[in-house]
Queue: 3 jobs
Job 1
Amino acid sequence: MELKEVAKAWIEMWDIELEDPARNMYGWVDDFEYEAVYENPDLAIDLVLEVLNHAPTDKTKEVLAAGPLEQVLANHGSKIIERVESLAGSNPDFSSLLGGVWQNSMSPEIWQRVQRVWNRSGWDGNLVPQQNAIHDITPDICL
């Protein structure tokens, strides 16, 4: 099965309430996510990126950040942190998604590296700044 189809099904699954029996048909998605997060961290990151490509809702982003992204960092941080840093530097959506990750069982070193590249705007009451506000300051008003 193509990753695009898995990502689409992942989003569909999380659009259904946890108690709804309709979620039962998505057990294979849970299995895929579990195997990726715990056994194939690069595949887990690929899944996260593919879900992001589908422009998920804020609710879905919360689950994506606190679920597979946080778990793969907690379990395989040292193996994937360089890729995560690179992605955060080149993909603003990924950097923003990292803002929803908590330390969990990440080592202090991995956690610090995540914090260096994340964008916390919009998470946990952090205000969303105006786009490029720091770059909009003209030299005549700078001290």
Note: Confidence is low (pLDDT under 50) at residues 129-143.
Job 2
Amino acid sequence: MRINLRFRNFIFVILAVLLVNIVSKAEKPQNVTVENAIGILSNIQVLDVRTPQEFSKGHIEGAINIDVNDEAFAKKVAELETGKTYLVHCAANLENGRATKAMSQMKALGFLNLKNLEGGYIAWVKSGRKVVK
């Protein structure tokens, strides 16, 4: 009977640790305005999750492009360093849009340092910031 109690306690602890891990990963990424993004660009990697066609028409300097709607998105993202900080954006970063979808998939792959560019690429352009074409 004592062994069963120990086993039950062990299982309880494991489940508690897993639950804490799931809850911590479920936290929403930090929203970053264009102005605030300027101050951290040297310490992060910009990840543009728009289509290659959108990316070729203009993108933030230094951004890498991985289309969230590409079948190979998870495979391509898995090749990135999970410990880096990523500023993720799509065109407008609407709630439940492409950037949200991308960050959700990235969190599931173990990426914990994700930032959401408020307003996406459109906000970047409207602010008059430099873009690469």
Note: The beta strands are 30-32, 45-48, 64-65, 86-89, 114-117.
Job 3
Amino acid sequence: MPKAARATLRLEDETGQAVEEIARQERRSKSAILRELLEEAIRLRRCPGILFVAGPIGRRPVIAGTGLEVWEVIAAYRECGEHFEKLHQVYDWLTPTQLRSALAYYRCYPTEIDEEIRRQEALTEEEAQRRYPHLFLPPAAPRSRRKRWDR
């Protein structure tokens, strides 16, 4: 982890209260919350069209207006031989601007996205079911042999 610079920051009362509330809800320090918010704000400015959403493993970058994570687009881009037109055919419901936003984010933060792609590729189906049970259908219940009208 890079060495952290120290900074003093004065916040408006309302902003300070919001930071304290987030810190309380997430059981994290105000410093950690402020650091995360500031880092996200910088990324948002560098990469318009990308937002951050909370998930089970922390906040992650997604294409604005979608739930599509940047790593998913980059993985598909690689599978398309890094041809933008082929990528647009795969994600034909996205605008070229949305796809370019994901590519721009990757150019700025390749290590983060490459690590997420590796993590996702290493995930087995059993591990995915354990971590994200809400994404899988429960086993089908045995069907009754009686017909509805016989009850």
Note: The chain has two domains: 16-46, 49-123.
